[in-house]
Specification:
single chain, about 450 residues, alpha+beta, 13 strands
């Protein structure tokens, strides 16, 4: 059995395990999925994970090989509505447990990037928590969900995620929920890497209390607002600072009055989970703050708790640079995996589809990362063409009626792209208009 076949068998076996206990994954246990249907519970999960960007009718025809007995659109909608809210999330976790991180920094550190990305879907004004009124972006209005995942930068898979309606998004809450939920593999230590927008004392404290490390970027203004104005007025530094967090304005209650300038007041409207329940307790936090030039006249600020004796400033700079991997993964997730082409306008079903696409992304990545390449004398180092690789893996996953599988590893080896590290392109930020259900193929 080839590696792709083994990985597919793992996913199918997890679906079958859930099928054996499907009463735990439906809205009406003992009623839903109790009768024989053309789209059974396991078929429904497999179909939704392997869906492409076409209309549901077209996807059904492709999945059932254009058979005249293909289930109707109505049958699919009725079966899909029976699934519990967390069915694909649980399948995502169960599937991931079979794979341990192979690539680690210095043999023990797992690099986990966190960032957020919006997903626009068909207009639904009834969903007030995700709906935006007509504006310059959209004449008719639109709805958005916000995905905040953890992405393993060295192994190129998603390890967890939080999905929020856009109007209720809270990146701080999402990150410390992900930090608390993360269970390190034996012998590994996580390093959580995030861009500006995720720096908060509560995030730092959650990482420290979970015996994890973090590398988080901050702008000049926000760093001074967060840490105070006593930072060096220099273009480049690497220092350790200590701050005492308190809910009290009274200096007489300070436990360290000799360090008055190191106190930071946290108002009661700001979440911080580690103050003592009683009294005027304080929380002491030690942070390492770095500032370094980028070479184009700009500077970068990093807040971390990585030890100085193991990570120099250059290594921390390289670790943060790797964070860009989550940005490229979003591009693959949205366009190659076709997550932007949803098949519903219900928030629950949109959440189902996002989790299903995360499963598909990991399935494709686990296969791709295990393909061995022969060394060849070329001008440039070559890497996998992920667009072709992921489409090949999706086609392989969809096969379910005894069709002969393709040579997945051979196709992945054949399609590669040169790596040109010196190339630079301006980042293009465009509003993603949802594709109409009517105009898909």
């Amino acid at each position: 059995m080839t590696n792709p076949e083994k990985i597919k068998q793992i996913l199918l076996s997890e679906i079958e395990k859930m099928n054996q206990h499907r009463k735990d994954f439906c809205k009406r246990p003992g009623i839903d999925f109790t009768r024989d249907r053309k789209i059974a519970f396991d078929t429904l999960l497999h179909f939704q994970i392997s869906m492409e960007s076409g209309s549901v009718n077209h996807e059904l025809l492709k999945y059932f090989n254009f058979d005249a007995k293909t289930p109707s659109l109505s049958a699919f909608y009725q079966q899909r509505a029976k699934l519990s809210d967390d069915v694909f999330q649980k399948l995502f976790y169960n599937f991931n447990t079979h794979f341990k991180p192979k690539s680690l920094l210095k043999g023990r550190y797992q690099l986990l990037a966190c960032d957020g990305s919006g997903f626009t879907f068909t207009r639904n004004p009834k969903d007030t928590e995700s709906y935006y009124n007509p504006s310059g972006r959209s004449e008719k209005g639109y709805n958005q969900m916000y995905l905040v995942p953890l992405y393993d930068l060295l192994n190129k898979v998603y390890t967890d995620a939080v999905i929020q309606p856009m109007r209720k998004r809270n990146e701080f809450a999402a990150l410390y929920e992900l930090i608390d939920r993360h269970t390190p593999y034996s012998g590994t230590v996580p390093i959580f890497i995030a861009d500006r927008g995720f720096h908060a004392y509560n995030v730092f404290a959650h990482a420290i209390e979970n015996r994890a490390f973090f590398v988080i970027r901050a702008t000049d203004t926000k760093m001074k607002r967060l840490l105070g104005c006593d930072l060096p007025n220099e273009d480049e530094f690497d220092i350790r600072v200590t701050r005492y967090l308190t809910r009290s304005h009274s200096k007489q209650k300070y436990l360290h009055p000799e360090s008055e300038d190191q106190y930071r007041y946290i108002c009661r409207d700001v979440t911080f989970d580690y103050f003592p329940d009683e009294g005027y307790g304080e929380y002491e936090i030690s942070l390492r703050v770095l500032r370094f030039p980028l070479g184009n006249g700009t500077y970068e600020n990093i807040i971390t708790n990585l030890p100085e004796n193991e990570f120099c400033a250059k290594e921390i700079k390289e670790i943060y640079h790797l964070r860009w991997g989550i940005e490229t993964s979003f591009c693959t997730l949205k366009h190659t995996i076709a997550t932007v082409n949803f098949h519903s306008k219900s928030r629950q079903m949109i959440t189902h589809e996002i989790w299903a696409r995360l499963i598909l992304f990991n399935f494709c990545s686990y296969i791709t990362e295990q393909v061995a390449f022969e060394k060849q004398k070329r001008k440039h180092i070559h890497q996998v063409d992920f667009s072709i690789a992921f489409k090949t893996c999706r086609y392989f996953l969809r096969l379910h009626s005894g069709e002969k599988p393709p040579d997945v590893e051979g196709l992945i080896r054949k399609h590669t792209l040169p790596v040109r590290p010196d190339r630079n392109f301006a980042r293009q930020q465009r509003f993603q208009v949802p594709v109409s259900f009517t105009y898909r193929f």
